[in-house]
Design a protein that fits this description.
The complex is a heterodimer of chains A (114) and B (113).
Chain A (H helix, E strand, L loop, with lengths): L3 E3 L3 E5 L4 E7 L6 E7 L6 E7 L4 E3 L3 E6 L4 E6 L8 E7 L10 E2 L3 E6 L1
Parallel strand pairs in A: 2-11
Antiparallel strand pairs in A: 1-3, 3-8, 4-5, 4-9, 6-7, 7-8, 9-10, 9-11
Chain B lengths: L4 E3 L2 E4 L5 E6 L6 E8 L3 E9 L2 E5 L6 E5 L5 E5 L8 E8 L8 E2 L3 E5 L1
Parallel strand pairs in B: 2-11
Antiparallel strand pairs in B: 1-3, 3-8, 4-5, 4-9, 5-6, 7-8, 9-10, 9-11
Classes of the chains: A mainly beta (114), B mainly beta (113).
């Protein structure tokens, strides 16, 4: 079955440093991946997505890298700010399902040290 | 443009009761999905509705059901509540016209006592 998982449940980063959050997936047929950010008391918020025909995609201060050989996904946040404190989920939309069915990983809580 | 609206925000129910949660998607979005979030199991997909029809279903018992109305608003119902049903229930909408981004509401926090 489908499965996505994160490597670390918590990550502490110095303000201004770059953050890297890692994720592994099990289904080699997976073709669409998404990163979500969830702040306390709020629903998940879309950050960035990537399809399996790409290795890298950049957004504003965020980059997602996809390594299909080892089934690994990472989210890089540049110049981490206090507002980046949240739980980050990697997720996939399984093959042949609608994009609205999302399988979430377990989440990494990112905390920022001043 | 209003976001996804879920009501109520908080709910306390007793074991054995039933509950109905409501979700109003972003205007123009026709797909509504429901998720359950708990500390132990994380975020789990419940079901998705599109044009008033259930299009996808997760691995939840039949006590969990839903429906979608012609205006795309959706409700989910949980019957015979159990303590383990205590969770944050999230709704997400998308336009399903090729765009893949799903927008989440703030959720309904259900506590079963």
């Amino acid at each position: 079955g489908e499965s996505v998982g994160l490597h670390l449940p918590t990550l502490s980063v110095q303000e201004g440093d770059n953050s890297i959050i890692n994720c592994a997936y099990s289904n080699s047929a997976s073709d669409y991946f998404i990163w979500y950010k969830q702040e306390s008391g709020k629903g998940p918020q879309f950050i960035i997505d990537i399809r399996s025909n790409m290795d890298k995609r950049q957004g504003q201060r965020v980059t997602v890298l996809l390594n299909k050989t080892v089934k690994h996904l990472s989210l890089q946040i540049a110049a981490t700010q206090p507002g980046d404190s949240a739980v980050y989920f990697c997720a996939e939309s399984p093959p042949y399902s609608s994009a609205s069915k999302i399988i979430f990983g377990s989440g990494t809580r990112l905390s920022i040290r001043p | 443009k209003a976001g996804v609206t879920q009501t109520p925000r908080y709910l306390i129910k007793t074991r054995g009761q039933q509950v109905t949660l409501s979700c109003s998607p972003i205007s123009g979005h026709r797909s509504v999905s429901w998720y359950q979030q708990t500390p132990g199991q994380g975020l789990q997909f419940l079901f998705e509705y599109f044009s008033e029809t259930q299009r996808n279903k997760g691995n939840f018992p039949g006590r969990f059901s839903g429906r979608q109305f012609s205006n795309s608003r959706s409700e989910m119902n949980v019957s015979t509540l159990e303590l383990g049903d205590s969770a944050l229930y999230l709704c997400a909408s998308s336009n399903s016209r090729g765009d893949t981004e799903a927008f989440f509401g703030q959720g309904t926090r259900l506590t079963v006592v």
